[in-house]
Amino acid sequence: MIKFALCDDNTQLLDKLKEFLEIIFFRNNLDAAIVFTTDAASRLIDFVSQNEVNVLFLDINLNSQANGIDVAKQIRQNNKSIYIIFLTGHFEYIVSAFECKTFDFIQKPFSLSKLESTILRLFDDISANNQKFIKLNNKKKLVNQNLINYIQKDGMKTIYSLSSSTIESYGSFNKLSESLPYNFVRCHKSFIVNVNNISNVDLSNNTIFFKYPPTSKCFIGPKYKSNFMEVLNNYGNVK
Prior knowledge:
Layout: E1 2-7, H1 11-27, E2 32-38, H2 41-50, E3 55-59, H3 68-78, E4 83-88, H4 94-97, E5 102-107, H5 112-128, E6 133-135, E7 142-144, E8 148-154, E9 157-162, E10 166-170, H6 173-179, E11 184-188, E12 191-194, E13 198-202, E14 207-210, E15 217-219, H7 225-232
Parallel strand pairs: 1-2, 1-3, 3-4, 4-5
Antiparallel strand pairs: 6-7, 8-9, 8-12, 9-10, 11-12, 13-14, 14-15
Helix pairs in contact: 2-3
């Protein structure tokens, strides 16, 4: 899921932006949610520093001591991957805003069509970034790869076991295995494991355990054991 945060000191505009985004998410079947809205820059900075946020809509001309560009620069210091989209009626700030690795500018007053165009382009960009997100079966559903413990083949289904939930999908397990980032390794005919999330490996029982939840586990098959162990030995954080 792609998580959005919105910040504008005009609460009426903030409500309109939230309404438009939810319409766009629904009618395009996008796996996204607005997790935070605020009219205060300080609250935004606190939230983003403590929670996962993938996309930030930010007003440039905030009614505070810091403008939106200052806020974006502060957030960008600790979050290199967040997408920043500025809301503005003041295009003289655009040159400065590019220093913040800005994805787009939405001119006020904004239209639903312009907003939708930006969001669809955003999702195309996110889905192409395989280092961060994995796209499920050509659908507009994206999952953060860092949350995946393992991927399991169960008949025609592909099950993504996350740290707090599971997601079911369909498609070729072999093709999926070939398209994943390097930290995903085939360890069994029915399992692909995210090496980054392993807590320990019990070789006597060919079982892999994960950091969270500690009850999560998958298995090593004899055909894949040698290659899996070779990859695993390159990671010093696994016992």
